[in-house]
Design brief:
Strand order of the largest sheet: 1-2
Number of helices: 33
Strand content: under 5%
Distance between the termini: 26 Å
Helix content: 55-70%
Radius of gyration: 31 Å
Structural class: mainly alpha
Number of strands: 2
Largest sheet: 2 strands, antiparallel
Length: 688
């Protein structure tokens, strides 16, 4: 369901009120506020595509009244827009448990399940919805599509009949039925339905793509080009459309048009391996060998496991008389695919040109032996055929055993195509609005918590930075500066106060010289030096603070972070000087520093077992050391103390990913996104 406001000013006013209320109300008050009012604000924010902020409002409504259905439903809708389909499914399930008559929840859960490939369960949801409303357009539409996916063609066709009788102007319905026709191999009916869809609306891209697909299969390149041209006019920002048109132009002998399309696709998306790979093949074909080699090298950098790129670069290097480099490319393929017989002939050619005739003969004999053994007993001695990873069609897996070696090689060097062009449009450019899952973020763990003089940045995260011992220290008023707990110590966040930090450091040192040092003075000086990245000085002052007060919890927390940051700095410096450095844990000098940091956080926990940030920081140390099991244990302890610790869910999710447990990673990253950790949704999207 969509919610619209008829006035732009009203939308802005609602949003400002929502943000002000969200900021002004402390977390403890949410249980006392009107859950319906918070839900209304969340719906207003949701209508403006501010999905992350909307989720935070729905969270508060759920805390206040967990037995309501609507907060879970609308949170599911927000998660769906962020492509967190598992999270959406789970929220819809709770919404239905709270109110089994909420039909929209069945529709939303069914849609999420379809995206997750649970088509049978989705059909069950749609059937329940249709019991309440037998002619609902989208229950019928989604059900028909799910049945098509399940290859239940007759009931799918019957459902489309009901849908299109009720809604004869529903262009998406005709397009989806055309897909059903194609699944059944009936291109004539498919074209009829496509034309019906286009007669209703020419603003949708899918009918044109399907027309191109049919013409493509018929090798009617002119019709295929015309259909892709129309798709490009609708969505000129999608690079994959240009890749497909280039393929069509190549088959129409329009070489320059094909190159032009590949160039433009790469301009739109410099990481589009299909476009770069194909451009390399075209350049190879016209003997522009140096540029062809450059393109294949680019593909390999972007996709290190692309066997085809290595093989073709090897062939190009043979023609460039780079025989040693060519042999290395072929050898790499042979290691991974020892039964791919053409690579032995290619290796033999490289060795022959290097003058190593005996080895060349041995390699050629190995290729012939593989083929001979295959002919004798194909089941016992199968030949390998590595598939083109980027291609959805026209790949090497389609050829038959009877094909000649030349045909095998032609397919191995075939241009690749993209079967679908994904919609990746962004609606907003603001940092936390719109489709945050489409933001290009680096996959990095959430940073450790540090004691600082800089105020923490405002975020959507549910966790407060409350640290009882630190709050008590600030309440005492022993120093003028307020001390904070901050996630990370990015110098760019406090550039504005660098001069003040240097001044405070000098003043404190003079005061200590003249009046002696209290533990708080040494702590403050240690914190300042840590912020200035002067770790040796910082550690000296923090050591002294702890000597003066062996139970100084805040000082242990500060020293643990300083030791951790110092170890990371030393490792980075060492890595710059030695590219072949050993793994993290094997660098014994730095391992000592990390162990000392761990001991500080352990001391914090022995003095106060409820300091959740100490568990989190310990988890980060283990994560950096690639001890993911220990890291997960630490993050789990943090989550036990505070179930709303979004960063702990996020980092535990990354740990699960590193350990190969994708299911648990999905669950943790979904929860982290729910709790306001923005990069979660981008990683969830990449994992799909």
């Amino acid at each position: 369901m969509n919610y619209f406001f008829h006035s732009g000013r009203l939308k802005l006013f609602c949003k400002l009120c929502a943000i002000l209320l969200f900021i002004s109300l402390p977390g403890a008050c949410f249980s006392q506020i009107n859950a319906e009012q918070v839900l209304t604000i969340g719906r207003n924010v949701l209508s403006m595509d501010d999905y992350m902020l909307a989720i935070q409002y729905f969270n508060q409504a759920i805390k206040a009244k967990p037995y309501l259905s609507d907060p879970y439903f609308f949170r599911a809708l927000a998660k769906l827009n962020l492509e967190d389909y598992q999270g959406a499914e789970a929220d819809c399930t709770i919404a239905i448990q709270n109110n089994k008559f909420k039909t929209e929840a069945y529709k939303l859960r069914g849609f999420a399940r379809q995206i997750l490939g649970k088509d049978s369960l989705a059909v069950e949801d749609y059937n329940i919805g249709l019991e309440y409303n037998p002619i609902d357009k989208y229950f019928l539409f989604y059900k028909a599509v799910a049945l098509t996916q399940l290859k239940k063609y007759e009931p799918a066709d019957s459902t489309f009949d009901i849908l299109l009788r009720q809604y004869p102007k529903f262009d998406d319905g005709f397009t989806a039925r055309a897909r059903l026709n194609l699944e059944q191999g009936d291109t004539t009916k498919a074209l009829d339905n496509i034309e019906m869809a286009l007669s209703i609306s020419k603003s949708q891209i899918n009918p044109f793509l399907m027309k191109a697909e049919i013409a493509w299969q018929r090798k009617d390149w002119e019709q295929a080009a015309s259909a892709v041209d129309a798709a490009i006019r609708l969505r000129p920002e999608l690079p994959d459309l240009y890749v497909n048109r280039a393929f069509i132009r190549y088959n129409s002998d329009d070489f320059f048009g094909a190159i032009s399309d590949y160039n433009y696709a790469i301009e739109l998306d410099p990481t589009n391996t299909a476009a770069i790979f194909n451009r390399a093949l075209l350049r190879y074909e016209v003997k522009d060998l140096e540029k062809a080699e450059e393109d294949m090298t680019s593909v390999i950098k972007l996709s290190p496991d692309n066997v085809h790129a290595y093989f073709n670069r090897g062939l190009i290097r043979l023609e460039l008389e780079k025989y040693k480099e060519a042999y290395e490319d072929f050898k790499l393929i042979e290691r991974g695919h020892p039964r791919f017989y053409p690579v032995y002939y290619a290796m033999a050619e490289a060795k022959r040109n290097l003058g190593e005739l005996r080895e060349a003969a041995t390699l050629a004999h190995r290729g012939e032996e593989l083929v001979a053994n295959y002919v004798k007993n194909p089941e016992k001695n199968p030949l390998e055929r590595p598939a083109i990873a980027a291609a959805q069609s026209n790949d090497i897996s389609n050829y038959s055993d009877e094909e000649s070696e030349e045909e095998v090689m032609n397919r191995f060097n075939h241009l690749v195509t993209i079967s679908k062009a994904a919609d990746v449009t962004l609606s907003y450019n603001e940092k936390i609005k719109g489709r945050v899952q489409d933001r290009d973020v680096s996959v990095e763990m959430e940073p450790s918590y540090a004691i600082t003089l800089a105020e923490p940045p405002e975020t959507l995260k549910s966790l407060s930075n409350y640290f009882r011992e630190l709050d008590d220290l600030n309440q005492m008023g022993l120093v003028r500066q307020k001390i904070y707990l901050n996630p990370g110590l990015n110098s760019s966040d406090y550039n504005y106060m660098m001069n003040d930090l240097f001044d405070m450091s000098s003043r404190l040192e003079k005061e200590i010289e003249t009046s002696g040092a209290r533990p708080i003075d040494r702590l403050l000086l240690g914190v300042i030096e840590t912020m200035l990245r002067n770790y040796n000085a910082a550690l000296g002052n923090l050591d002294e603070a702890i000597r003066l007060n062996p139970h100084f919890v805040v000082a242990y927390m500060a020293r643990g972070y300083a030791r951790y940051a110092n170890a990371l700095a030393e490792i980075r410096l060492s890595s710059e000087g030695n590219k072949n450095d050993d793994s993290f844990l094997e660098r014994t000098a730095y391992t000592v520093l990390l162990q000392e940091a761990l001991s500080d956080f352990d001391k914090v926990l022995s003095l106060d077992p409820r300091v959740v940030f100490a568990w989190f920081n310990k988890g980060n140390i283990y994560y950096e050391a690639q001890d993911f099991t220990s890291a997960m244990q630490c993050y789990s302890e943090a989550i036990k103390i505070d179930p709303n610790f979004g960063e702990a869910y996020f980092n535990r999710g990354l740990s699960y990913l590193k350990a190969g447990n994708k299911g648990q990673a999905f669950s943790d990253l979904s929860k982290a996104g729910e709790l306001g950790v923005i990069p979660s949704y981008n990683i969830l999207k990449r994992m799909k």
